Amino acid sequence: MTHSDLPLAGIRVIDFSRVLAGPYCTALLGDLGAEVIKIEPPGGDDYRAVGPFVDGKSGLFSAMNRNKQSIVIDLKTAAGLELARSLCARADVVVENFRPGVADKLGIGYEALRALNPAVVYASVSGFGQTGPESHRPAYDIILQAMCGLMDATGAPDGTPTMLGEAVSDAVSGLFASWGVLAALLAREKTGRGTHVDVSMFDATLSLSATLVARYAATGLAPRRVGNRHPSSAPFGVYRAADGFYVVAVLNNKLFQALANAIGRPEMAQDPRFADDETRCRFEGDLRAGLEAWSAGLSVAEVNRLLSEAGIPVAPIRNVKEALESDHAAHRGLLTEVPELEGGTVRLPSQPVKFSGYGANRVTPAPSLGQHTEAILAELANVATAHPQVFSKEKQHA
Asked: Taking the model in full, what pTM does it have?
């Protein structure tokens, strides 16, 4: 399979973004076959300097900038700005994550580029959106986790608010940005016009918090921290075995009866304390004691086997290494060994959506700083010579 076989083949993306949320969006578009040209300042994307490092290269930068080309452009110079606008004049998509207003001041905001390219789909990813009382507030993932209620809802009831173990606000913002770009490209097929896609990490994080928002909308109350358990179902959480921890998810009486039978305590299903989800939650401590008394003499592997055989949703608690080195992850192709230009290989994530008829995922290594500058400049020069009308508007607005 070639890259031309992928769903977004033929779509050109100009990527002004840096660090995580914006680059994750464009990495996802690249996974689907889009040509992504990453415009970097002379010093490069800040993420190039963030570890962990392998052979002097940032593993985080490599993952978020797979399937891209790199060109170095100094947007603070007139020549650099003209070059960037020339690239945008021929693009299908532009993605940026400057602070609101910065792109406009530089001359590469949506209105300026729409004048050159009315069909452009322009995505802005920012902490709090392009408008609103918080729009100019600085944003990092932890800021959004704090301000959107995720930290308040995570952790032990009597403990401190807890940051999630992943940069979920950044990642979900990039995911929603790619989703918005795809919708805008589909709309363009009908109208011929581009649009401005405004993605806020604030909005995206609250949208990700689907059950927290639903609970508030239904009750008017902030969901409480409940630790490693479900707020309205039990047993549904983390439990101890002889050599570690496992999770069980029981959401109805039928599953609870099966669980009671599996642990040799069928009478528990008849106990009024455990009659339904509401009472099981009220007496969660008693229920936990009964379940852990059974699993205390068993390994996590034995618990997993016995409860799985009984049809109970159960799983061992793995670390990321164990998850990615599992047979199932290998079967799904979630990490790909990719050859690098200077020799050796690098392991990179591949996108998780499988399309029938499109074969294997596309994964190419992240570019070195400015790796494709000369090739992109040569292509622009050839187009300008053969089709000067392509740049006529750009020159008027430079």
From this structure: 0.90
Q: How far apart are CA 194 and CA 190, in angstroms?
A: 11
Domain count, the chain: 2
Just list the catalytic residues. Answer: 230
C-beta separation of 222 from 154 below 8 A: no
Query: What single-letter amino acid sits at 144?
Result: L
Angle, nearest 10°, between helix axes 201-208 and 168-191? 100
Among 298, 321, 344, which residue terminates a domain? 321
Q: Can you give the CATH number for the domain in which 345 is found?
A: 3.40.50.10540
pLDDT higher for 321 or 384?
A: 321
Q: What is the tens place of the pLDDT at every residue in 70-97?
A: 999 999 999 999 999 999 999 999 999 9
Q: Do both 177 and 29 map to the same domain?
A: yes
pLDDT in tens, 103-160: 999 999 999 999 999 999 999 999 999 999 999 999 999 999 999 999 999 999 999 9
The predicted-structure confidence for 172-225, as pLDDT tens digits, reads as follows: 999 999 999 999 999 999 999 999 999 999 999 999 999 999 999 999 999 999
Question: Are residues 315 and 337 both part of a single domain?
Answer: no
**What is the rounded distance in angstroms from the CA atom of residue 236 to the CA atom of residue 281?**
9
Indicate whether 229 belongs to any domain: no
Q: How many residues does the chain have?
A: 398
Say how far apart CA 23 and CA 44 lie, in whole Å: 13
Q: What residue has token string 């992928």?
A: 6
Q: Please report the beta strands in 130-202, taking only residues with DSSP state E, as ranges in sequence order.
A: 195-200
Question: What counts of helices (H) and strands (E) characterise the chain?
Answer: 17, 13
**pLDDT band, residue 282 (cuts 50/70/90):** very high
The verdict on 274 and 387 lying in the same domain is no
Q: Decide if 265 is inside a domain.
A: yes
For 247, phi and psi rounded to 5 degrees? -120, 145
